[in-house]
Amino acid sequence: YTKLIAKGEVTWKSPSNIALVKYWGKEANQIPANPSISFTLDTCATTTKVTYKKLENKAQDFSFDLFFEGSLKEDFKPKIQTFFKRIEDYLPFLKNYHFKIETSNSFPHSSGIASSASGLSALALALMSLEKELNPDINEDYFIKKASFLARLGSGSAARSIEGDVVQWGNHEGTTNSSNLYAVKYPYKVHTNFKKYQDTILLVDKGQKEVSSTVGHNLMHGHPFSQQRFAQAHDNLTKLKEVFAEGDLKTFIEIVESEALTLHAMMMTSLPYFVLMKPNTLEIINKIWDFRKRTNTHVCFTLDAGANVHVLYPESEKEEIMQFIKDELVAFCQNGQYICDQIGFGA
Ligand code: 2P0
């Protein structure tokens, strides 16, 4: 680009995602220790408006203001500051601007649902829109890949929130065009059994996590089981390819639940060790197993780095599973709160 635009604004809405094969462990520059795959969500999303204004005075420094749901938010600033620092070499125009970032989430405030995936992907997309304003020649493929690349530098899982509906991030021998640097739309067949796949998120604990994901990732360095865990993630990705092609829900459930429990097992066996599940997390898991035994449904669970439970099931079983959730699981949610979501198609 040759000329800077004086001012303007851009808004993006970007969804959250839920990993099936989990990203847990990373190297320098946000390079994942193992590949991961996720369902992009639909309802859970962040909307971010970025207003940019060219700095008139060369002596002025790059700066930004951050508003969260209407008020100035200082506690999110360090994460965004780090993000801007990491991406400045890739977006050299940043230093010439002041940014006003206004962001809001579709999910309840401090519900224990991480907003880093939706939030950082929305911000990365907004900055890419400014890059495209400055350089209209960049094509869609470049735009999407670079948005994911930038989002990764903000928060690893954010790389997977640009597109839908099934997204992979990280090198894996069985996947063409996979990369550690950005996520890609899953390039293989996904059976219609997974169409509109449902995710009902049970809010078990809305408190602040005791250990952040960034700290958890780093505890995989020197972890006694790390190498086996990374190999297992590759194996599970290989298995999922056939599962997605065939629509094999039984094996899908086995992989997804095992991944969730392994993620938490890694937390419990790191040094220092920690536990993010709560008693109600386990109550819900047991109820799901019990219900699955009693019925011929395909309900299963997965977990993020927290106590909340994502209940996954095919759209065709929605009525029966929602009844089960209301009858047996909502009692274990904080204030009876849950969020109904499903697979989505990206930002
Ligand atoms: C995932 N999680 O694959 C895994 C599973 C949580 C559990 O990626 O340090 O916020 O910003 O790269 O992406 C959460 O960690 O960590 C996460 P950073 P991030 O979704």
Structure description:
Residues 201-329 form the Mvd1 C-terminal domain. Helices cover 35% and strands 23% of the residues. With 347 residues, it is an alpha+beta fold. The strands form three sheets. Strands 1, 4, 5, 6, 7, 8 and 9 form a seven-stranded mixed sheet that branches. Strands 11-12-10-13 form a four-stranded antiparallel sheet. The chain has a two-stranded antiparallel ribbon with strand order 2-3. Strand 2 (26-27) and strand 3 form a beta hairpin. Helix 5 (226-246) packs antiparallel against helix 6 (249-268). The longest helix is centred in the C-terminal third of the chain and has 21 residues, at 226-246. The protein is globular. The two termini are 26 Å apart.
Q: Please, how many helices? A: 8
String of helices and strands? EEEEEEHEHHEEEHHHHEEHE
End-to-end separation: 26 Å
- What number is the mean pLDDT? 96
CATH topology term of the largest domain: Ribosomal Protein S5, domain 2
- The overall number of domains is 2
Bound molecules: ligand 2P0
* Rg result: 20 Å
Number of strands: 13
Q: In CATH's first tier, which class of the largest domain applies? A: Alpha Beta
Largest sheet: 7 strands, mixed
Q: Based on Cα principal axes, name the global outline.
A: globular
Structural class: alpha+beta
Stretches where pLDDT falls below 50 for ≥5 residues?
A: none
- Beta-strand fraction estimate: 15-25%
Indicate the CATH architecture of the largest domain.
2-Layer Sandwich
Assign a percent range to the helix content. 25-40%
